[in-house]
Amino acid sequence: MFTIGSPNYSVSSYKHIATQSLTLTPTISSIEGIYDLRNLNFLPDKAIVYDLAIGGTKINRASSEYRSFKLDSDSLWTRTAPYTWGAKIDVSANKALKNIWKIKLEGKVSDASKPFSLTPEIRFSYVYPILPN
User: Fold this and answer.
1) 7: cis peptide before it, omega within 30°?
2) Which residue in 22, 69, 120, 133 has the fewest CB atoms around it within 10 Å?
């Protein structure tokens, strides 16, 4: 827990495990997944994301692989760092955890018999206010 004026704040993280894979083929080089966290009651209402990482289970490979994210309401994508697949988010950007998040997977697959699939596991690190009862 830490304090920035008032109220006190705490940090935590949540890993969202997708139920469907994102798959690239020789004819599909970009695909998006949508993850709605708005109604997850166990998450704090005023949580703000400061770090996001896109891991998960992979089948086969793609060259020039990229993973990006954004809120549904954003116009621009944020690309994660290669290999760590994470990105820092400035808290002042006010990216609410309980939101609709989009993940984009991009890459090149040359062999039609070996599509590249990722079942995303998205780790959201967030800060949230501890409000008095």
Assistant:
1) yes
2) 133
